[in-house]
């Protein structure tokens, strides 16, 4: 049976951020959401790192880059709450070019992983791996990820994440990110359905987004970036985590927000 999930690519944030540095690392201690209180009896940590390669970018002209994202979500005891929704804005330093081959959502939902890697290879724009914790099983479950270009329409660029939760009965995963141009920057909206009917939550992830291609002989890149004077700024306008496994000491809902800067200067 195939179940859709969004693999969280949130960028570590909150109502009170603890030690977010210019290298884009941060550790978060949540404020409980209902009612709000500065209690950290059951500490939730969202450690994250974001970077670009090459590490030094020009100020005015965007150049092809690889974008890396990795992070961990955890609590002191039990299973962490599940990442369900995030709205993330990135300033004008980053652009996305969806002009290469596309892979449609219906194919992602109907084909096996091997079939997708063969039939949609031209649409692959990144790879990664995540681990999911299940309330019903000890340890964590590995989930390889492949990112596919979904093309652009109606002012939105779509990025699909396909993976397969490994186990005796592998379960396919499909994620959708919708990216809009807002002012001079980008705004990504992530929707995260319950993982395995609420039994699972994201523990960690590593993703690299990079794809070079050409159109009519002209070289292009799925992700390009320049370095604004203060670095590339990312803001989590809203991040929602839900305690779907009723872990003691954790709110039913926790809302996070905040920002970080990726250093990229000459």
Query: How many angstroms separate the termini?
Result: 50 Å
How much helix, percentage-wise, in residues?
under 10%
The total count of helices amounts to 2
**Poorly predicted parts:** 1-41
Summarize the structure.
By secondary structure, the protein is mainly beta. Helices cover 5% and strands 52% of the residues. It starts with 16 loop residues before the first strand and ends with a strand.
How does this model look, in words?
The protein is mostly beta strands and 266 residues long. The chain has two helices and 20 strands. An eleven-stranded antiparallel β-sheet has the order 5-7-15-10-11-12-13-14-8-19-20. Strands 6-18-9 form a three-stranded antiparallel β-sheet, with no helix packed on it. Strands 1-2 form a two-stranded antiparallel sheet. The radius of gyration is 18 Å and the shape is globular. The N terminus is likely disordered.
